[in-house]
Amino acid sequence: MIVAKNITKSFSRLKALDEMSVTFSKGECIALLGPNGCGKTTLIKTILGMVVPDSGTIEFDHEPIAGQWLYRNRIGYMPQIGRYPENMTIANVFEMMKDIRKGSCKQLDEDLMESFELKALMHKKMHTLSGGTRQKVSACLSFLFNPDVLILDEPTAGLDPVSSEKLKEKIIMQKEKGKLILITSHVLSELDDLVTEVFYMQDGKRVFSKKILELKEETGEERLSKAVAKMMVLSNEQKHDKSYTF
Ligand SMILES: Nc1ncnc2c1ncn2[C@@H]1O[C@H](COP(=O)(O)OP(=O)(O)OP(=O)(O)O)[C@@H](O)[C@H]1O
Description:
This is Cu-processing system ATP-binding protein. The chain is an alpha/beta fold.
């Protein structure tokens, strides 16, 4: 569904993405992992067309995305930090988004708005919201237009535990519907029941990408955090052994 080939993106002398290639398929829930500053958000933004790569190509459903924008109607994006017109109420923001996306979605998905009880807060202005409520607005907007692809950048950061669980349940339901979900999180324990694949990056490059079953089998670990940690140790140990392919 999304295929990126040899994507490079530099900011001055820093290579945020270095010849990065990825294939993300329908029905997968992929954890995009790696240390701070390794290029996860930059990769997401190149897929969304918000950052233009210096070289390389990205295809969405076999069509190059360069110069295109309609494909974005099929993606729900929850940014790490949602930025909105601060003087608007939550209701204004939703109306604005519905207006922008007019006609691109027949049936709105308002499940999360209900489970987060957001409707009671609709009159509040964005600049008055707590960090968690702002995060809930971003989550609701990303699911609202029933997208085929969900890109969620640190979705549970700032959410209380009950709201986090509600969001996780919603993500699992979308995965079961066969959607493609890309998710970044530094709290690996939250990803345990969610992800089907792990894509681990460092310094703008892929270190390994593995299906979750394969990862658990190879490391002998059940929990994602332990499996990823062990994979990193194996990766370092095997760096000079060319017979071992990640
Ligand atoms: N617009 C920009 N201008 C200059 N440098 C940038 C810009 N965007 C990203 N970078 C740099 O590119 C590198 C990758 O950043 P990116 O946000 O993709 O990392 P990340 O893996 O998402 O990090 P985190 O886990 O902290 O969210 C970082 O060194 C960052 O400072």
